[in-house]
Amino acid sequence: MVPGREGIEGAMDEQNVIDIDMKGAPACGRCFMLVARFAPQVVASSGTYHRECFEAWYFGRYRKRPRLIAGAPDRHRFQVRDTEDLAA
Length: 88
Ligand SMILES: [Zn+2]
What we know:
Blueprint: H1 5-17, E1 41-44, E2 47-50, H2 51-62, E3 68-70, E4 77-80, H3 83-87
Parallel strand pairs: 1-4
Antiparallel strand pairs: 1-2, 3-4
The chain binds zinc ion.
């Protein structure tokens, strides 16, 4: 008798899914999940973040939304203009 075994196996299966088609993907600097190649993402000097993660972190810290610039180098990636905002 192994109580709860089914639940444990289910959780392990979910983790294994991450390995599929994620080779070379960077880990998000905030939630540490891998950032999919075509997911909206922010490339900052401190690392790569999911766009949602970055906005949530930035808003929590600076109380305003980050200025994100798309197309660097493709439309799934954003760069943040943070030098002006940080000085303000
Ligand atoms: Zn994230």
